[in-house]
């Protein structure tokens, strides 16, 4: 089983719908992140959380919200989806106190907004 | 955030060494140099990181210039599985999230 699991892996929705992407992890890491990737571009940070009580905006947070329900769960919501939110979304976790402090990514959630 | 500059794409023959360059002329004294790669249809994965000295691990080597304004990721023998986008990222002591650029797309030719 993957250490960082994202659901759903693929989703097609319509403009104006509310969408939630979920991320769960079994690594025991405090830090969790949501990134967005558009074709041919690198990843851009949407939101991040350094612990259950901490939520921070990234470089492109407009139109998104997050919820850190527990250490292991970090959800990304699109309250009213629009077509330019069509993208590949990645969740990641890290723990700077362990090893290299590297980020571990999920396999991605592909969202299409029609 | 300090920026990095990488070539958009590079090509290598299978079983040949690959040197992936990265320029970071505005690096600060506390910035670590991180490399991640993203295989097709997967999330990025950590490759290596360093501060001042050259580093080696089972995946790659990282050569850092003496003035730290540039670095090179070295894959000693490229395989088809190494075809990916490689990202060079500056990061302080682990307290800030990673900021990804566009990276270098490496193609490996059999």
Task: Please provide a brief summary of the model.
Chain A has no helices and eleven strands. Chain A is mainly β and 114 residues long.
Topology:
The complex is a heterodimer of chains A (114) and B (110).
Chain A: E1 4-7, E2 10-13, E3 19-25, E4 31-37, E5 43-51, E6 54-57, E7 65-70, E8 73-78, E9 87-94, E10 104-105, E11 109-113
Parallel strand pairs in A: 2-11
Antiparallel strand pairs in A: 1-3, 3-8, 4-5, 4-9, 5-6, 7-8, 9-10, 9-11
Chain B: E1 9-13, E2 18-23, E3 32-38, E4 45-50, E5 55-56, E6 61-64, E7 70-75, E8 84-91, E9 104-109
Parallel strand pairs in B: 1-9
Antiparallel strand pairs in B: 2-7, 3-4, 3-8, 5-6, 6-7, 8-9
Walk me through the structure.
The complex is a heterodimer of chains A (114) and B (110). Chain A is mainly β and 114 residues long. Chain A has strands at residues 4-7, 10-13, 19-25, 31-37, 43-51, 54-57, 65-70, 73-78, 87-94, 104-105, 109-113. The mean pLDDT of chain A is 94. Chain B is mainly beta and 110 residues long. A five-stranded mixed sheet of chain B has the order 1-9-8-3-4, with no helix packed on it. In chain B, β6 (61-64) and β7 (70-75) form a beta hairpin. The chains are: A mainly beta (114), B mainly beta (110). At the A-B interface, β5, β9 and β10 of A face β4 of B.
Q: How many whole angstroms does the radius of gyration of chain A measure?
A: 13 Å
Strand count, sense and closure of the main sheet of chain A?
Answer: 7 strands, mixed
Number of strands of chain B: 9
Q: How far from one another are the termini of chain A?
A: 32 Å
Write down the secondary-structure element order of chain A. EEEEEEEEEEE
Helix coverage percent of residues of chain A? under 10%
The portion of residues forming beta strands of chain B comes to: over 45%
Going across the biggest sheet of chain B, name each strand in turn.
1-9-8-3-4
Give the helices and strands of chain B as they follow along the chain.
Answer: EEEEEEEEE
- Total strands of chain A: the figure is 11
Please identify the structural class of chain B as seen in this structure.
mainly beta
What profile does the largest beta sheet of chain B have? Answer: 5 strands, mixed
Can you tell me the overall shape of chain B? globular
Instruction: Please state the structural category of chain A.
Output: mainly beta
Percent strand of chain A: over 45%
């Amino acid at each position: 089983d993957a250490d960082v699991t994202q659901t759903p892996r693929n989703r097609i929705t319509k403009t104006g719908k509310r969408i939630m992407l979920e991320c769960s992890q079994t690594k025991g890491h405090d830090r969790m992140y949501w990134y967005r990737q558009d074709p041919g571009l690198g990843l851009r940070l949407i939101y991040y959380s350094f612990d259950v009580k901490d939520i921070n905006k990234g470089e492109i947070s407009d139109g998104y919200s997050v919820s850190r329900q527990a250490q292991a769960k970090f959800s990304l919501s699109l309250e009213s989806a629009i077509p330019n939110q069509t993208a590949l979304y990645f969740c990641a976790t890290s723990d700077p106190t362990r090893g290299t402090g590297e980020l571990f990514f999920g396999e991605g959630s592909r969202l299409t907004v029609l | 955030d300090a920026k990095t500059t990488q070539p958009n794409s590079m090509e290598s023959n299978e079983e040949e060494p690959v040197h992936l360059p990265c320029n970071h002329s505005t690096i600060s004294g506390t910035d670590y140099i991180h490399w991640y790669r993203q295989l097709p249809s997967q999330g990025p994965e950590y490759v290596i990181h360093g501060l001042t000295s050259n580093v080696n691990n089972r995946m790659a080597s990282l050569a850092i210039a003496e003035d730290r304004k540039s670095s090179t990721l070295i894959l000693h023998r490229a395989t088809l599985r190494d075809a990916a986008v490689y990202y060079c990222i500056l990061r302080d002591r682990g307290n800030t999230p990673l900021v990804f650029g566009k990276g270098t797309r490496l193609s490996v030719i059999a």
